[in-house]
Amino acid sequence: MSADGVNNERRRFLIAATSAVGAVGVGFAAVPFLSTWKPSARAQAVGAPVQVNVSKLKDGQILKVQWRGQTIGVLKRSQAMLGHLPEVDARLRDPDSTESDQPAYAANEARALRPEYLVVNMHCTHLGCIPTLVPQVGAQPFDPEWKGGFYCPCHKSKFDMSGRVYSGVPAPTNLKVPPYSFIDDQTLMIGVDPEGAA
Hints:
Order of helices and strands: HHEEEHEEEEEE
Strand content: 15-25%
CATH superfamily of the largest domain: Rieske [2Fe-2S] iron-sulphur domain
Shape: elongated
CATH topology of the largest domain: Rieske Iron-sulfur Protein
Distance between the termini: 73 Å
Helix content: 10-25%
Number of strands: 9
């Protein structure tokens, strides 16, 4: 105790205790505030990448998944399906995909990282309807020289087996290809570009 009757040790203890309690109180107040900056689980799920197991897909089968509120189709194509792609080039609006929305690694005839798998946004580029996969080659009510592809029943737009749009239909561009990459031979990830992709 000092000469003027003040207990300095007690004063230091009270200041330290008050500071500690205040710091804890600030922490408890800050946690709920800071947690509001974090996106909700639902918001994270909407934009989160989606893994797709393609090991059970047979030639001509399509698997549809949701990513960012859009229907994404993963189509397994046979060598015969891929062989028909050049046969329709003259009938397409954008056969080289120069005016279409796809990553640079999908700007090829197959519009894919691996030719056998087409990963495409299934919403028609006209008004957003979901085209039907019609893989059979041969005359169809909507095309007497059909080589397989997608047909949109809403407004009769047609796309080949790479999602490339035919000329003379309402859809202005090819179906979009989202970013995607392969984790391994059986699994692909929609929403993530391959490592080193531009």
